[in-house]
Amino acid sequence: MAISSMNFIVGFQTLLFLTILPLFHCESIHELLASKGLPPGLVPKDVKSFNLDENGLLEVHLHAPCFTKFENRVFFESVFKGNLSYGKLSGLEGLQQEELFVWLPIKDIIVDDPSSGLILFDVGVVHKQFSLSLFEDPRDCKPENKQQHQQRISYTSGVSRKKNGFDVS
Asked: What value does the mean pLDDT take over residues 79-91?
């Protein structure tokens, strides 16, 4: 009985070690994403640092907030984070996608079936499907200027300020 429980413990520790080991050997965020069934191009080229904790919380630090374009424009805060599991980044914070001049927060990014060639962006009010091929290679990310910041914030707030029925600045 003692030998069998000892074998179970050793087997469990080995399995745990083999499951966690790949997470610590990834040299870049792009390798980490690929090891988790996500395309490496989801994250811009120039990443300052990243951290993945034991609970799967991924935090990515960029040098500055920036924009890139896949099919639509995407905005990255200087720090964005989400829960990383195989084929999924969920509970995202710090990512927005432009839809018809409105900036919507990206909540989840999911690759259910890699053979389908599709990736799903959940922006709350709508789910957008894109070709995985759009995200094969990491892209350059352009810094946000003051005008872009003001436009994005005014679109994101969704609140128009009115006085006597007219928009005011």
From this structure: 97
